[in-house]
Each structure stands twice: as C-alpha cells, then as structure tokens.
Amino acid sequence: MAEPLLSEFRETTLPLGTSPAERLKTFTDAVVAIALTLLILPLLETVPDTIRANETAAQWVHASSNYLLSFLLSFVLITAFWHNHERIFEHVQRQTAPLRLVNSFWMLTIVFLPVPTALLGLQKTDATQYALYLGTMLLSSLAINGLALLVARDPRIVGRNPPLPARTLASTFSATVLYALTLILALNGVGYKAAFTLMLIPVLTPAMLRVVQRLKLISSP
Which is more confidently placed, 9 or 46? Predict the structure, then answer.
C-alpha cells in the first residue's frame, strides 16, 4: 500500500528550483497576442485623416503603403518568432529561474517591436531605424537561442517530455547568424533588402547541426 503512494509522490514532486511551466506558456502566448494587436495601431491612426480629407479607400492605401508593408512584415516575423518559441516550449515541462529570465527578455523584444515597426512608416530611412528594427530582431533571436540552450542543457526543464531535437537548436543558431548578417548589410548600404538573407536559414542549418553535434550541446537524459 505504501509503495504505490511513495511512487506517486516521487512522480508529483518537482526537482529543486523548478515549478510547472503551464502559467509561463499561457502568459507568454498572451503577451505575443497583445504585441501582434499593437502592430495595427499606426494604420488605424491614419484612417481619421483620410475621412476628414474626404479621400477614397484607394487613396488611403496609396498614402499608407509604407505602414501596410511594415505591419505585414512585422506580423509575419513575430508569428515566426512565436512559432520557434512554441517549438522549443513543446519540450518544456518545468520552468526554472534562468528560463523565466531569458523568456522575459524575449517578451521584452516582442513587446518593443511595434515601436520600430511604426517608424518603418517614415518616408526616410537611416541607420538608427535599421538598428532599432533589425537590432530588435537580432536580440529576439538571441533570446530564442538562450531558451533553446537552456531546454537542451537542463534535464529538469524537459522532465518526462521528449528532448529538444538537435536540428531545432541548429535552426535557432542559423537564424541568429543570419539576423546579425542582415543587420550588418543593412547598415552598410544594402538596406532592408538584406532581409532576403534570412531565406538561407534552411541552407545554413545542416552545417550548424554538425556544430551542435560536435559540441554535444544537447544534454543526455
């Protein structure tokens, strides 16, 4: 009688320094949803001016084309970041203080992103605009790297869930390298066209996978 109870107690007792991760996941998803919603605000602010000027919808689209493009681009990128975050947190059963800290930094980058997105609507671009927008993307990618490393290296976080695949870790590293390259190119005259380098993530990932495997960055269960 005592043995089954003892076994159940062992299963429900969390390792020291950990707690269930469900609240962290839910809170993070809510923050991302709010950030995505805030992206639309600069566009909404242009509508009253169009109405007062008695302009047509076609004129509004033409005048707000920069805001429309920046909204769509940032929506896609934040969704991609959230998807990567979700792929990592599928393997998270428990949270630790370092995981909460890095996750909070990642949320900070996501919440801040609507600000440089609004600045993309400006007619003139400069180095500061590139640094704010692409730099925020780079910091967000670095935070994703940190989360992936913590999940890969700390068995307490994974618990009974499947371990993080080495390819997922390699993909996050590849993205960070290319975000850094994008920022460097943008600041050196290429502009936002440098973002096309991000299409090379699938190309770079196999090479990065070999690095991950060689360095043994995935902890054994």
Answer: 46
Region class of 159: left (phi > 0), else alpha (psi between -120 and 50), else beta: left
Task: Kindly state whether residue 6 falls inside one of the protein's structural domains.
Answer: no
- The C-alpha atoms of residue 133 and residue 146 are separated, in whole angstroms, by 20
Residue 112 is assigned to a structural domain of this protein: yes
Strands (E), 50-133: 94-96
Per the CB < 8 A criterion, the answer to whether 149 and 115 are in contact is no
Q: Which residues form the domain of 137?
A: 19-215
Q: With contact defined as beta carbons under 8 Å apart, do 88 and 14 qualify?
A: no
pLDDT per residue over 98-112, tens digit each?
999 999 999 999 999
**pTM exceeding the 0.90 threshold for the entire prediction:** no
Paired sense of beta strands 94-96 and 18-20, if any: antiparallel
The total of structural domains in the chain comes to 1
In a domain, 5, yes or no: no
Please state the φ and ψ torsions of residue 96, each to the nearest 5 degrees.
-125, 170
CA distance 172 to 187: 23
